């Protein structure tokens, strides 16, 4: 058996973003690409570490989603479908695994990640992950302002930018 794993995090979508489509332009291919990128990588990673955690009766799984997992945004339709699926899976894993000593949480990034950007600073974000790992008392952490994103979607008619392009 390999080295002991106490926690696993998944930063869904690191690197390539794949195709991003508006709601009416979403296709099976565009959804499949996002699901492969955002969800299946996390499922694979969890599948590798969960057996050890279950055998020990202890562990932490932290999955990362984006703001479109909680707030519908027409300009991120296929991404939102995948992110919402990942967020739902994190919540259901939490419900199923908590009695077995496994803590599952999700971190929703609702802000651009900016060095020196307060709660959106990479070190501050890392501290939030670490706090979830240490405290094991909540399932979800939101970094950024969901209401500000909701307002952006409303203000732009779902186009995602103030110019409405």
Provide tags for this entry.
single chain; 165 residues; alpha/beta; four-stranded parallel sheet; 4 helices; globular
Task: Record the SSE blueprint.
Elements lengths: L6 E5 L16 H29 L2 E8 L10 H21 L4 E9 L11 H14 L4 E5 L1 H10 L10
Parallel strand pairs: 1-2, 2-3, 3-4
Helix pairs in contact: 1-2
Brief overview:
This protein is of the alpha/beta class and 165 residues long.
How does this structure look, described?
The chain has 165 residues and is an alpha/beta fold. It contains four helices and four strands. It has helices at residues 28-56, 77-97, 122-135, 146-155; strands spanning 7-11, 59-66, 102-110, 140-144. Strands 1-2-3-4 form a four-stranded parallel sheet, sandwiched between helices. Helix 3 links the parallel strand 3 and strand 4. Helix 1 packs parallel to helix 2 (77-97). The chain is globular and about 50 Å long. The N and C termini lie far apart (53 Å). 29% of the residues are buried. Residues 8-15 have low confidence and may be disordered.
Order of strands in the sheet with most strands: 1-2-3-4
Into which percent range does the helicity of residues fall? 40-55%
Oligomer state equals single chain
Q: Structural class of the secondary structure composition?
A: alpha/beta
Share of residues in strands:
15-25%
Our count of helices gives: 4
Mean pLDDT: 87
Contiguous low-pLDDT stretches (5 residues minimum) are: 8-15
- Cα separation of the termini: 53 Å
